[in-house]
């Protein structure tokens, strides 16, 4: 019957997956003992730096780039005792915060899949098999061009872990070092977010050295310039070596406090038994805290909020948009503009024209806001109502029926008059401010004021055809009197045009409708 048939199909599929998985594991195991791998180990033993050079080559042959690993937001951990436990604590803490975690460790207890975990679970057989053959086939296809070389077992698994974590888009990856640190194949990681060193002792002396100080030097090799590092309490010898390594490489090194020093409402209970786990837990807390702190700071740095201190560069025209509409917010806007505009002007390589595009709505104190803008030394002050286009296709999202067009234009004319008065143009239209000897006290700037019927016409006049977004043939070009166009000679001749758009969020929104087409989709 159909039920038996479906069960049989499932069994066949399960057997098929198991067979392909076993093929992958058997192929992986050949990398443990093949002749080229043994020769590789012998060749590199006297030149440990060759290990990282070879690892970069294998990574490239597998289709990965070293700089791609930066996207994994890595926590890198080494040590003699407790590094695996520290990694397990760290991964669990950050997973509890809701992050999608990757965790690479060694050795495995039962199945090789245990070495590569996502969200705390060994990667499934199907995914392991899929990703294994992707990486293996790329390396196999390129081996003849590289003297028949294939990466040894641990190297291959490290490359596979990088590939899996990138493909599965983890938020962070915790990497446990295999042996040592400086020349371990995980140390091709260039920019971890934080590094940790658990308790040090004597182990792997044929590779790392026969004293704890030599071993500490190797372990400190995972430090990276500017990346914070933490260690548990060490004896004086290795502690001094780690401090010297941190200074040499250029990073901070902090010693973790005892677990008892952390403040907690309840007594701390660890999921891993044994008193020695307390120092590992403390190290994990420091690593997790530092990672979270950087994550939040990165979030702050990458936050975007259109129309608030926003910069849009369209070729020679740069727009500075801020929806400031109170005197206090305008003070902040002016401070921001006076900081950022000069940075752009220094790189312009020629004359820059500054333009103010302003409007305000409601009962705002336009005079007070405009007074704050005067010291910015604009060459042109342009005023327009919050109407995106003065034609029938005006965006319904931007229409405001609470105020008549006549009232809006009257407001703009009032603002133009206020600007002229604030700049002393009413009483002394052509006057220059002079000091003894006839020299200008301030570099005199051309100051003209104009009023346009809508945002699009204002932007088109300001940009003078030099903004390709506004020159879109689908946009209606609003005719302007020749006398108004004549005033734009300065805009056409300038190397760059800098436009501050402010006074109203509605004005900024209407401008963005034309300047950022993605917002209209």
From TrEMBL:
Residues that hold Mg(2+) according to the record: 106, 176, 204
Subcellular location as annotated: Cytoplasm; Mitochondrion inner membrane; Mitochondrion matrix
Keyword Ligase: yes
Keywords: ATP-binding, Cytoplasm, Ligase, Magnesium, Membrane, Metal-binding, Mitochondrion, Mitochondrion inner membrane, Nucleotide-binding, One-carbon metabolism
Cofactor or coenzyme needed: a monovalent cation
Family the entry assigns: Belongs to the folylpolyglutamate synthase family.
Protein name: Folylpolyglutamate synthase
Organism this protein belongs to: Sinocyclocheilus grahami
Lineage: Eukaryota, Metazoa, Chordata, Craniata, Vertebrata
């Amino acid at each position: 019957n159909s039920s038996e048939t479906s069960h049989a199909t499932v069994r066949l599929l399960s057997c098929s997956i198991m067979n392909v998985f076993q093929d992958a594991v058997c192929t992986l195991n050949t990398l443990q003992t093949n002749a080229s791998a043994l020769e590789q180990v012998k060749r590199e033993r006297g030149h440990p730096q060759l290990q990282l050079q070879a690892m970069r080559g294998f990574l490239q042959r597998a289709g990965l780039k070293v700089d791609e690993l930066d996207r994994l937001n890595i926590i890198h951990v080494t040590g003699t005792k407790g590094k695996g436990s520290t990694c397990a604590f760290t991964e669990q803490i950050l997973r509890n915060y809701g992050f999608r975690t990757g965790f690479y460790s060694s050795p495995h207890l039962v199945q090789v899949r245990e070495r590569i975990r996502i969200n705390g679970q060994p990667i499934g057989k199907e995914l392991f098999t899929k990703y294994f053959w992707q990486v293996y086939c790329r390396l196999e296809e390129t081996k003849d061009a590289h003297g028949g070389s294939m990466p040894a077992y641990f190297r291959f698994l490290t490359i596979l872990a990088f590939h899996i974590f990138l493909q599965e888009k983890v938020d962070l990856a915790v990497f446990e070092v295999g042996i040592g640190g400086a020349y371990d194949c995980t140390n091709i990681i260039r920019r971890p977010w934080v590094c940790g060193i658990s308790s040090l002792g004597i182990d792997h002396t044929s590779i790392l050295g026969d004293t704890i100080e030599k071993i500490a030097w190797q372990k400190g090799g995972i430090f990276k310039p500017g990346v914070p590092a933490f260690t548990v309490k060490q004896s004086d010898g290795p502690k001094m070596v780690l401090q010297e390594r941190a200074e040499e490489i250029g990073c901070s090194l902090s010693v973790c406090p005892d677990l008892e020093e952390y403040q907690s409402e309840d007594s701390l209970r660890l999921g891993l038994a044994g008193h020695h786990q307390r120092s590992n837990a403390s190290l994990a807390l420091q690593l997790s805290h530092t990672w979270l702190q950087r994550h939040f700071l990165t979030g702050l740095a990458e936050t975007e909020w259109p129309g608030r201190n926003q910069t849009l560069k369209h070729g020679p025209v740069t727009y500075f948009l801020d929806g400031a509409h109170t005197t206090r917010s305008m003070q902040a806007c002016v401070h921001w503009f006076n900081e950022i505009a000069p940075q752009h002007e220094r790189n312009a390589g020629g004359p820059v024209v500054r333009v103010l595009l302003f409007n305000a709505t409601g009962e705002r104190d336009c005079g007070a806001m405009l007074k704050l803008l005067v010291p910015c030394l604009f060459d042109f002050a342009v005023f327009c109502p919050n109407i995106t286009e003065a034609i029938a296709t005006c965006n319904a999202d931007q229409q405001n029926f609470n105020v008549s067009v006549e009232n809006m234009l009257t407001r703009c004319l009032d603002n133009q008059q206020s600007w002229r008065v604030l700049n002393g143009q009413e009483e002394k239209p052509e006057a220059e401010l002079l000091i003894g000897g006839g020299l200008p006290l301030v570099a005199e700037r051309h100051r003209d004021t104009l009023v346009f019927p809508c945002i699009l016409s204002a932007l088109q006049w300001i940009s003078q055809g030099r903004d390709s977004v506004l020159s879109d043939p689908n946009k209606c070009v609003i005719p302007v009197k020749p006398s108004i166009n004549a005033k734009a000679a300065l805009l056409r001749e300038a190397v760059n045009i800098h436009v501050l758009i402010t006074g109203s969020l509605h004005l900024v929104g209407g401008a963005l409708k034309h300047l950022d087409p993605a917002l209209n989709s």
